[in-house]
Amino acid sequence: MAEQSYPEHTVEKIGGTSMSRLKELRDTLLIGDRTGADLYGRIFVVSAFGGITNLLLEHKKTGEPGVYASFANASSDHGWLEALDRVSQAMRAAHADILEHSADLLQADEFVRERIEGARSCLFDLQRLCSYGHFRLSRHMMVFRELLSGLGEAHSAYVTALLLGRAGVSARYVDLTGWRDEREFTLEQRLQVAMEGVDLTSELPIVTGYAQCNEGLMAEFDRGYSEVTFSRLARLTGAKEAIIHKEFHLSSADPGLVGVETVRKLGHINYDVADQLANLGMEAIHPQAAKTLRQARIPLRVTNAFDPGDPGTLIDDAPAKATGAEIVTGLPVVVLELFEQDMVGVKGYDAAILDVLARHNAFIVSKNSNANTITHFLATSLKRARRIESELAALYPSASVTARSGAIASAIGRDLKGQRVLMRGLQALDSAGVEVQAAQKSSRAVDVQFLLHPDDLDRGITALHAELIAEENRTSIAA
Question: Is 230 within 8 Å of 300 (Cβ atoms)?
């Protein structure tokens, strides 16, 4: 495949929550006051409409089963059929709120019917095939998960193209999902083939966030796949900037928690800070997508999709011009502690623990150790942590292994040197009546973490933000 050159352009991603307000996006971000050539020179990668992926797979937060989970857990009956019907109804309801012209509604309805019926036939065939002893359903489940994931993005991209076409925009629907495509491609090849012949000076590509490829995006990235597609497309086309549109500005803390009047928009951070945020579950961008953009030297911008006049927050490799905390955030964790009196001077404990954590797919937020204790702070369920606890106790019968609920509040900044963030944070938390169970500051001075009781997390974040960020604002204004 010959390489294609592209004129100067941006690659932009819209998340699912924002996509559910697509008519507003048409009037602000997608079209707004743009006319003629100003409409183009952009590529949009879209997620499924809000809630659709939960119905297709499983609810991201509650775990409530969707089509995938229903099929996986009860493959011998047809309970998944009802789940698939709910997806069809939700898709139709989503585009009925967006599309106004009857012809567009008919096309969207037919698109949903064709994709849902295709998935239904595929699942019946898979169920029938796996009724024979030589075939195992477990071997096909990841492929099935990939197929389902593509349904949501295909629908939203198609509807977006219809909506923009009706408004006079030359929008091109770009389907990366591999639907009824027998060819095998790597992700790079899939993107190259899909973009062949696209004229960015006169067309507005609307690209599915899911891309079917040999690597299998779901297996490695699960629901982070759309940002991986977005970043790889930006690299492939040589975008001057990659932009993620969210429904809020990246701020110094959750405004609903610390108050709208006290937060400040970040404006400019680097990829180092973005990595720390992702580690604490507050992803500005998936770490692997950030890596792709960083290595390609493509700056990333995170904007509020509904505030198109604001430049948002730029994320690049630039160091901070001034020291200080830039954001305070946190998350609940499980504190997994292994105490072994005979650990001193003996190698292998850490490696064995990491092996167990990896097998249970437990994400490590942070860790610390001393002569006879290794503590991991995990973003996982307490139920899973109990299984890990039991396995480690069997592995080290003379050790004391405990798992308990906790929370980490963290102050993050590009450069915290000379700011006494650890001491000031401890004092602020003490003044707020928040007990600190542990605290640590990394030698690179980009984050400081405080281990709290889970019930104290919100109060802890508020107290730290008031001292480290709001107070700095007041001081700089006074100066």
Answer: no
